[in-house]
Amino acid sequence: MKQKNIKVAYTSRIVSGSYTQVPKIQMEGKWLEELGFSIGSTMVVEYGEGSLHIRPMTAEELADRRRAGLEKELAAKSTAIRRLQKDLLEDSRRLSHVAESNPGYSSPSKKSSR
Question: In 3D, which of 89, 65, 85, 87 has the Cα closest to residue 77?
C-alpha cells in the first residue's frame, strides 16, 4: 500500500458569536482519481480509534441513499396531501352549513299587508 503524508490544517468557524479553529484535512491530486475519487463522486469516511478509512461510495450505497431520500420526500408529500385533504373536508363542511336552510328564518308571507 502506498503512503501520503498530509498535514492537518485548520479552518475558522463562528460558534456562539466568536471565531474558533477546527482541524481540516485537504487532499488533492490525480492519485485520488486513480483510486476512484473522481470529481463529484460521493465518499464514505469511517472513523474510530485514531484512524480514518476513506472509500468511494458503491453504486448500491448510492442507490440506497437515493431511495431513502425519495422515501423521505414521499412521506413528507403524503403528509402534506393528508393535511390538504383534511383542510378541504373542513372547508366543505363549513360551506355546506352556509347553504342549508335554517328553521329560525321564515319565508316572507304571501299575504298582503293591510
Answer: 85
